[in-house]
Amino acid sequence: MFISIMGAARTMATHPPGSERKKDWVFNELLGRLVTGRYGFGAKISAKDLSEEMGVSRFPVMAALNDLRHAGFIIVTAQVGCEVISPSATQIHDFFLLFGRMEGIMAELAAERRLSEEVGRMRSINEHIATISSSAGAGEEYRQLNRELHGLIHAAARSPLVHARQVTNWAMSDFLITQAGGFERRFREVTKEHADVIDRIERKAASGARLAMETHIRNFARAVREFLHAPSSQRERPLMKATRRTG
Questions:
Q1: Which of residues 37, 67, 84 is at a domain's end?
Q2: Which of 59, 138, 148, 238 keeps 20 to 30 A from 231, CA to CA?
Q3: Residues 78 and 183 in one domain
Q4: Strand (E) positions, 57-111?
């Protein structure tokens, strides 16, 4: 079974469910806040405040924050506190270079190992994505569908060890994209890029699928860098409310 943190940013419970370890619940709650933009670059995070807000002791909060530190999302400084990372342009470039190469490998493996019905499911998700209205700011809906599509590609690759290492990078990618204005900025292009990847997977064109996926990720990385380099007055952050086109 594939490991997934795809549901981390969905609607959160107001208290930790009994079936989930408190540390894991806090971690998923905080990760959701990061990937949906509630916490921005450089935001201060107080363990004491989180403990009171979530109704848990400081121990699971600190354990969750430590896990987020290891995942690269926050910096923990002794006697100072916790702060969300503020990566440089070079660090963002390097991350997306790695992320794109890894996703490219999964697309390549998917082209070699996919089943016919898996391609159909990929196309169905991409068609669903195409119905989202970019003008309405459907970033969160797109993010969830995009995770589902990439998850299908990973499943078709049948490489659980590689998937387990790459899936944690999905959250970092979502976090960086959300900080740079959200997914809405590339709605017009993404379905075409997805279709290109899927076409190559269907044709079992392994190297072509890898290159198409790398191009797709590289285009997102470019959009992130351009947004973060633009003057603040030119940055537009679309609303995160999903609406569908009609007619």
A1: 84
A2: 138
A3: no
A4: 74-77, 81-84
pTM of the predicted model as reported, rounded to 2 decimal places: 0.83
Other CB atoms within a 10 A radius of the CB of residue 72 amount to: 16
d(CA 57, CA 179): 30
Q: Is residue 239 part of a domain?
A: no
Domain boundary among 35, 54, 84: 84
pLDDT in tens, 134-171: 555 577 888 899 999 999 999 999 999 999 999 889 99
Q: How far is the C-alpha of 172 from the C-alpha of 34, rounded, in Å?
A: 9
Single-letter amino acid, residue 115: L
Helix axes 116-130, 139-157, angle to 10 degrees: 170
Domain that residue 199 falls in = 89-234
For the stretch 180-236, pLDDT in tens is 988 777 777 899 999 999 999 999 999 999 999 999 999 999 989 888 887 665 545
33 with 93, same domain? no
Distance of alpha carbon 80 from alpha carbon 199, whole angstroms: 51
Give me the number of domains the chain comprises: 2
Tens digits of residue pLDDT in 88-98: 999 999 999 99
| Residues 206 and 112 sit within 8 Å (Cβ to Cβ) | yes
